[in-house]
Task: structure prediction
Amino acid sequence: MAAPTMDRSTDTPSAAPQKITMIKGLNQALRATMEADPKVIVMGEDVGKLGGVFRVTDGLQKDFGEQRVLDTPLSESGIIGTAIGLAIRGYRPVCEIQFDGFIFPGFDQIVSQLAKLHYRTQGRIKLPIVVRVPFGGGIGAVEHHSESPESYFAHTAGLKVVACSNPVDAHWMLRQAIECDDPVLFFEPKRRYHEKAELDPSIAPQPLFSSRVVRKGSTATIATYGPMVKTSLDAATAGAEDGLDLEVIDLRSLSPLDLAPVYESVRRTGRLIVVSEAPSEASITGEIAAKVQQECFYSLEAPVLRVTGFDTPYPPAKLEENFLPDLDRVLAAVDRSLAW
Amino acid sequence: MSSPERWSQPQPSGAPAATAAQPTAEQVIAGLRATSEGGPELVQLLTPEGERVDHPDFHLDITPEELRGLYRDMVLVRRADREANALQRQGQLGLWVPLLGQEAAQIGAGRALRPTDMAFPSYREHGVAWCRGVHPNEIVGMFRGVDHGAWDPVERRFHPYTIVIGNQCLNAAGYAMGQRFDGKVGDDNGEATMVFFGDGATSQGDVHEAFVWAAVYDAPLVFFCQNNQWAISEPTERQSRLPLYQRARGYGFPGIRVDGNDVLATLAVARWALEECRHGNGPVLIEAFTYRMDSHTTSDDATRYRLSTEVEEWKLKDPIERVKAHLSRNGFADHDFFDGVEAEADELAAVLREHCVNLPEPPPGRMFDNVYAEPSPALRAQQDEYETYLAGFAGGEH
Ligand SMILES: Cc1ncc(C[n+]2csc(CCOP(=O)(O)OP(=O)(O)O)c2C)c(N)n1
Ligand SMILES: [Mg+2]
Result:
């Protein structure tokens, strides 16, 4: 089945550099892809008139109409399941799941159909679907609004999983995800939604499924993604005052993992701390630790350490500062690694 | 009270347009739109002006004292709701989910329940909570972020709030199946369960599956849907082509649309539905036709998606004003009574505020409690390690 073609991301917006929030970066990415390809549609709860509870889809229904921006019935299985049918019919749906904790009614469709149809049809059916998920904690929310479910999806073959950490990446990564012919679970760190950065359209983005060294260093390596990139960078800045020179790598893509830069880094520093909000048990952070010890065994000066959420349900908001990794916990792990 | 047989008869079609000569698809659909008006099927016993009216199937004998009790309930839960809303605005709560406008639906349903019945709320049912003996003090903790719900759901027979839309409907169906399996259904002393959900929730698979399960197992379950016309920014017609109560027929049980701003009608219909369930004639669907007077939550701004004229129209159907008018007009209550209820409401608000702002912060160790019924050594080790780490700060090193 021929997937509709669209302009590649080398087709940068003509606008001058501008300071944008992550929300704005995502909104502009949707707008740009919708303008370029009439088959790109947005679907989700409250994404139309309201513009989404985080306003990521603000103004899109007004400009593109109700048939391209769908205020769907309240049913996540319905959102994913019908997106699959629409994709078979040639559309490129971008689905919004309102909050991380509400993806599970759609889990069956994601794992059983979205992930497997390409395989089951010997590649005859492509599913260029993006599932956007505001994820993670730190906003003082009630239950089910602060979860980090990415590992469930990375565990499932057939799905690609990415997490952006800043407004510029959010913009380009979403455009690239929409262009991708595979289903992409797109995790957006909601606690970073209002942070700002300069988007310079003349700087071409790096490939979607690649990680990036965001701070060079020599004492130890921190590999992280999503909301914890900022936390890790803050830790590196604080650590510098104590003479620590930390390297920070933003993984960006969680499935496939692009670990070559991590291996290269660990071979230099001999130490790796993996940081994530998600509980550690049976998680992406465990996967990274396993692979790094296999690839860099003789370079490691200490075991790979992890700083993560605890293996509990997400706690009441007043305890989330305890649950979530912070600068101190990251630096404590660095100290432990150095003392090994 | 109407007999179950009534419901084995075909109900009037909800689609008159379909029988007219060659209607267009759009006309058929327009005729089925879910939200327009309460419609002729709406069960009402007390008009917005406070007049008692008769209904052929649903009657309610009620004493002036009981009437005053319902009025008091509604005033108190509204006052607690407004206080909690204010507490959120003042930064004392992270979020509040207002019940404003839905007092009659919730008090009518809540007061129809017996102590031996079970209730499964969604997240807006502060009025039902009140009827189950759950004080607003026990509710604000989860919105302040100190706990995930404070009451004992088994002892109160009031399940924890469920935020994931629709989940609780299947849990309620299972509980009601258990009531039947335990032989607690079949006579006047029978037990029943009531589950609360919204108009938006009716699109969730879990809700449809609960309809199927409750029907197949003849579960003593009352599905109480508060159609408050909105699911955040989406009007009910985004969820359904036909009035929600009519869905029940397709699953093989009765569905009734009641004026959810009429506490008397809601009480009568809810009592009847629970009686049906107790006697083994469940399940039943009740659609309480009401209105969400405030925004979805304190995080929402309803002016972005709905007209103020709609809100103004619904103000005229206020659930409390009509009872007040009825009480006054018939001499069932005097100034002293109304003043007394106001004073009580002020006191409740003060108690709630005092309690809320003084709620103790949970200790970090609390996070690790009750993850499992049988403690996990691995988790215990994680907790010990974290507490050792925290103790390291006690020396003031960092
Ligand atoms: C599975 C799931 N998806 C999305 C949400 C986000 N959400 C919370 S309330 C709500 C609307 C619910 O509307 P309705 O069922 O009519 O109940 P109401 O809030 O009007 O009482 C939505 C979409 C959720 N809580 N759970
Ligand atoms: Mg609603």
